[in-house]
Design goal:
By secondary structure, the chain is mainly alpha-helical. It is built from 18 helices and six strands. It has a two-stranded antiparallel sheet with strand order 1-2. A two-stranded antiparallel ribbon has the order 3-4. It has a two-stranded antiparallel ribbon with strand order 5-6. Strand 1 and strand 2 form a beta hairpin. Helix 4 packs antiparallel against helix 7. It is flat. The N terminus is likely disordered. GO terms for molecular function: nucleotidyltransferase activity. Its EC number is 2.7.7.41. It comes from Ataeniobius toweri. Pfam families: CTP_transf_1.
Length: 434
């Protein structure tokens, strides 16, 4: 494929001006190291007698089992480990995308692209993780004087750091290569938007309860595996040109399998406080806690079935956790819209004529190849929680109140007491004691 839309360049500017970009400023597609076979030697020997299609099937299957086992181990290790894993995955995904741009950029010997890319990554992570610390670790922030200063001026510090990088980029501009440098500047910022912003949403979902972290990730994994299996054994009809190996049979089979899997997983996890309680920081023990009285979402409810289903199933009512109903919507998104994250990644790779983002995982490509749908799913989950699930969080409101000055806290106290008194919610003893 050598169509014009595979090129980064635009039509050249008028010739004869000394400060315009040259027509050779359009970069070539990078040569990917991900196209080489990085399968472990003993696996190659064990599977050397199989046809390539079945060899790839076994390699992907074995590595998938290893990754799923590691996922269970990470969940067992708790929320802090999950946060660090999300950060490591984010950094690796960022590295894989930026490396593609660096191969283009480095051939022109232009300064600072890689340095500035990583600098902006640090700035954005400082902003997002600083917001998380101030929001979820309020007791710790109030206890440490340096953290109080950083929390108070966090956004100003973040903006100042970004401005420093912005100025460094302007100073790095090189004559006759302005266009390419702005391509790379945009490349970095789009990568930050896709990877860093959405990985921050993954962590926000985690703080709502580990079930909001585990279920969305698991159903995307399930959809990926089941769509692959249905496509492998039954696939005949191509689904989309961007991914020729994707089939309608795999897409439909993955949808129904994912909805059933999500429904069952939601039922199993809803029974345990460890998964359903919001993740909060205990200032007394300096540890995360996942203990609470489960909300109504995770309390068994009785539902009356529609009359059509009553005649078919001969059941009038069914007992479900409300979260199971939410899981159907999450699973539907993961099956119907989530794959478009993979199609987007496929289009990106085809634009640069590479097979995978990297060769980190044999048979699977790079980390970004495994998480291209996860980021889209994380954003949907965050929006879904904010729109249909989350209510006011008393603990977070209290943390914000405790960050106020003593005079402001006292004013809030009197306002709240007057409001409760007017509504008759204060006990008589409290009113007489005034």
């Amino acid at each position: 494929e050598a169509e014009s839309d595979d090129r980064l360049g635009l039509p050249g500017d008028a010739e004869g001006e000394c400060d315009v970009d040259s027509k050779t400023d359009t970069p070539d597609a990078p040569v990917s190291t991900a196209d080489s076979d990085n399968t472990l030697e003993y696996l190659n020997k064990a599977l050397e007698g199989l046809p390539p299609r079945w060899k790839n099937y076994w390699i992907r299957g074995l590595l998938s089992i290893c990754m799923i086992s590691g996922f269970f181990l990470i969940i067992y290790m708790g929320p802090i480990t999950l946060i660090f894993v999300v950060m490591c995955v984010q950094i690796k995904c960022f590295h894989e995308i930026i490396t593609i741009g660096y191969r283009v950029y480095h051939s022109y010997e232009l300064p600072w692209f890689r340095t500035l890319s990583w600098y902006f990554l640090i700035c954005v992570n400082y902003f997002f993780y600083g917001e998380t610390v101030a929001d979820s670790f309020g007791a710790l922030v109030r206890r440490e004087e340096p953290l109080q200063f950083l929390a108070r001026y966090h956004r100003f510090i973040s903006f100042t750091l970004y401005l420093a990088g912005f100025c460094m980029f302007v100073l790095s501009l090189v004559k006759k290569h302005y266009r390419l440098q702005f391509y790379m500047f945009a490349w970095t910022h789009v990568t930050l938007l896709i990877v860093v912003t959405q990985s921050h949403l993954v962590i926000q979902n985690l703080f709502e309860g580990m079930i909001w972290f585990i279920v969305p990730i698991s159903i995307v994994i399930c959809n990926d595996i089941m769509a692959y299996l249905f496509g492998f054994f039954f696939g005949r009809t191509p689904l989309i040109k961007l991914s020729p190996k994707k089939t309608w049979e795999g897409f439909i089979g993955g949808f129904f399998s994912t909805v059933v899997f999500g429904f069952i997983l939601a039922y199993l996890l809803s029974q345990f406080q460890y998964f359903v309680c919001p993740v909060e920081f205990n200032s007394e023990t300096n540890r995360f806690t996942v203990e609470c009285e489960p909300s109504d979402l995770f309390v068994m409810q009785e539902y009356t079935l529609p009359s059509a289903l009553q005649n078919t199933l001969r059941w009038k009512t069914v007992n479900l956790y409300p979260f199971q109903i939410h899981s159907v919507f999450l699973s539907s998104f993961a099956s119907l819209i989530g794959p478009f994250g993979g199609f987007f990644a496929s289009g990106f790779k085809r634009a640069f004529k590479i097979k995978d983002f990297a060769d980190t995982i044999p048979g699977h490509g790079g980390i970004m190849d495994r998480f291209d749908c996860q980021y889209l799913m994380a954003t949907f989950t965050h929006v879904y929680i904010a729109s249909f699930v989350r209510g006011p969080n008393p603990s977070k409101v209290l943390q914000q109140l405790l960050m106020l000055q003593p005079e402001q806290q006292l004013s809030m106290f009197h306002t709240l007491r007057s409001h409760l008194k007017e509504r008759g919610l204060l006990p008589p003893a409290a009113v007489q004691a005034e």
